Amino acid sequence: MGSANKTGSAARKARIEEMRRTEQVRERRNRFLVIGGSVVAVVALVAGGVFVVKSQSGDDKDTAADGKAASGHFVTGADGVKTWKGTLGRTHVSKTVTYPTEPPVGGDHNQVWMNCDGEVYTKALDNMNAVHSLEHGAVWVTYNSKASKADVDALAAKVEKTPYTLMSPDDAQADPIMLTAWGHQRTVTGASDANVDAFFEKFVQGEQTPEPGAACTGGLPQ
């Protein structure tokens, strides 16, 4: 059993690293496209034309209306993980979304994601950007003022070495330390809680991911 777990972990790590490499190639290609597009734009403007660019990832829908956050409720499994049963919107919206949970586990969100390539933020995030990171398969570690500094430091060290994760303070959440993925959430007692590793193993780019392999860089740094 131990050997099987190690094999599974190694396979997952290899898959995430491959996604990371693919993402870097995509970013380089996009930079070349931006440069090329800028040249074309200048030429078009000189010629009296109009150059319009619209680009974004995945399910691009930008609307001025308030977003539908989610409808449904949590069901807690035997492993302590709460799973959202119901609907989680995935539309890109420009106005504020009010989520039924804190931190949110999904729903309509901003078209720009928070960078989540092992990012540790020291200030609270805009939920609408963080939810987009969850859509890309990230695990979001949050903590409030009741969490110990030792636990926060240890969790930060874990996040920093784990692709497709991010961490930030959230004084609005009920428990000291919480872990969130798209449609899933749990509370842990501290950094040494075995459920931290279990949650990362299952949900970092896990089966719940709406857009597996989507970028965790190229978004907002804070």
TrEMBL record:
Composition-biased stretches (Basic and acidic residues):
14-23
Region annotation (Disordered) maps to 1-23
UniProtKB keywords: Membrane, Transmembrane, Transmembrane helix
Q: Keyword Transmembrane: yes or no?
A: yes
Q: Which segments cross the bilayer?
A: 32-53
- Supply the Pfam families for this chain: DUF3105
- Name this protein carries in UniProt: DUF3105 domain-containing protein
